[in-house]
Amino acid sequence: MGFQRFTMFFLLALIILSQGLVKGTHGFACNWGLRSTHLLPPKIVVKLMKDNGFKQVKLFEADAGALKALGNSGIQVMVGIPNDMLESLASNVNAAIAWVNQNVSNYISKNGVDIRYVAVGNEAFLKTYNGRFVNATFPAIQNIQAALIKAGLDRKVKVTTPLNADVYQSDSGLPSGGNFRPDIQDQMISIIKFLYQNAAPLTFNIYPFLSLDADPNFPKEFAFFDGSADPVVDGSISYTNVLDANFDTLISALEKNGFGSIPVIIGEVGWPTDGTANANKKNAQRFNQGLIDRIIKRQGTPKRSTPPDIYVFGFIDEAAKSIEPGPFERHWGIFNFDGSIKYPLNLGGGKSLVAAKGVNYLPKKWCVMSDQANVMDPGLADSLSKACTYADCTSLSPGSSCSGLDTKGNASYAFNMYYQNMDQKKDACQFNGLSVITSTNPSPPQSTCHFEIMIDLSKHENKSTTTTTTTTTTTTSLAAPKMKMHSMVMPLSTFMFTIMLSLCM
Ligand SMILES: *[C@@H]1O[C@H](CO)[C@@H](O)[C@H](O)[C@H]1NC(C)=O
Ligand SMILES: *[C@@H]1O[C@H](CO)[C@@H](O)[C@H](O)[C@H]1NC(C)=O
Ligand SMILES: *[C@@H]1O[C@H](CO)[C@@H](O)[C@H](O)[C@H]1NC(C)=O
Ligand SMILES: *[C@@H]1O[C@H](CO)[C@@H](O)[C@H](O)[C@H]1NC(C)=O
């Protein structure tokens, strides 16, 4: 029974992974998302990457500020194309030529950006998209490849498409049973064949955290690399963690279709630090340290000993992301939004994580509920709702870092987030007469809850180097669907597998 239960969990966890690795880069790779209310200046972020040994970065779109800052940095770049551009790129090779010209060739030649990959779409085959992007993806990949050839860049810049692990599954519940989802099998084969012929890699995203978060019965230890879970036995192989199991499910799917040796990149994997009970610094440190140790040791999986390139999700917190997937969505960063350290990581060679340098902050002032104010005040609910509509209150969610506060502490936390989000403007600390500005740090001692001070963008030489990312309203739309889909898809596929399994057992 123990075995069968684990087998089932295993299945449930089928998220994804990848494998291959084109060339041996020694360094770390990360995703740099830009859905922030207060973007840390791109130059500081790039310096932070370099200081911590990151040599590859993935962007979700061709953001001008980020790309310029990456110029001549020595960091290799994967630049993404949002799903909503797929159709036009698919139907018109000239659109692809223009995209490559503006968003690849120019940055390489004019800004010295070391672009190595174009990621066409983002998890375009997610079941939750109901096939919306399925027909456009392959032609868009072909047109981008044609455009790269036309630009004379096809040897240096490879095309790929990051896919969610829901493109494959295992009817047996074990990695060896892996195959592609029947509804997109033909598309998958066409894409894989094309990428293979062009010496380009496949890219898959894996999320053990989402498996755990979606299923209260998931064996938690199996999500980590040093866990004490009983191994899942698949023929002669014993699996001790979800990542290996998922990755090898993909490898089995590739082998079954005759592409056992195609290079694979893990496009996203990581662990958030706040927003829900399992999203905390302890778990995130445990998971990410295990991941980093594997990267340093160049450890592969049982079925593929050559390790894949692994892009950690994410580098830095994004307080303006949609929280539809869950309150944890804004807390995936290894670093806080300001480039400060959340938890230590051993990066190998005696190095540990270092924080961002040269970050300017607003004065040490906080907005809190005043001593005179009453928690029964009828204006309180309104005030809280206003504060948390515009600012990030996800740290107040059940199980989160500030969930232990009393009602007054709660209100203070929300007021302060709003005040900081509004750059400490005087009139931003006016909540129906319930609030007051203080210079005494209200963060409770001995608590995980931290009342933050906003970074001072006016003191940085370039206030906003990016055009599309400085306001919450314009930014949530683009990258938001990514994680949203992740987490929606997980429970869904989990559910499916559960049904499949109960039928088999
Ligand atoms: C370059 O990328 C940006 C960001 O995704 C996009 O807005 C723009 O349309 C792209 N340029 C072309 C010519 O497609
Ligand atoms: C994709 O193409 C197939 C075959 O041409 C067609 O039946 C299907 O409706 C298309 N799907 C979408 C979402 O357009
Ligand atoms: C604090 O706020 C959170 C989020 O609004 C809420 O779930 C929780 O019940 C509040 N706690 C108290 C003690 O008011
Ligand atoms: C920052 O501002 C300076 C001075 O205005 C300008 O020369 C520089 O190009 C800007 N840098 C970026 C990355 O936009």
TrEMBL record:
Q: What is this protein called?
A: glucan endo-1,3-beta-D-glucosidase
Its record classes its membrane topology as: Lipid-anchor; GPI-anchor
The protein's matches in InterPro entries, at most eight in alphabetical order, are given as: GH, Glyco_hydro_17, Glyco_hydro_17_plant, X8
UniProt keyword Cell membrane, yes or no: yes
Q: Where is the X8 domain?
A: 365-451
* Keyword Glycoprotein attributed: yes
Question: According to the UniProt entry, where is the signal peptide?
Answer: 1-20
Main subcellular location: membrane
Name one process (GO BP) from the record. defense response
Q: Which organism is it from?
A: Lupinus angustifolius
- What GO cellular component term, any one, is given? side of membrane
Q: Where in the cell is it found?
A: Cell membrane
Q: Which PANTHER family match?
A: GLUCAN ENDO-1,3-BETA-GLUCOSIDASE BG1-RELATED-RELATED
EC numbers: 3.2.1.39
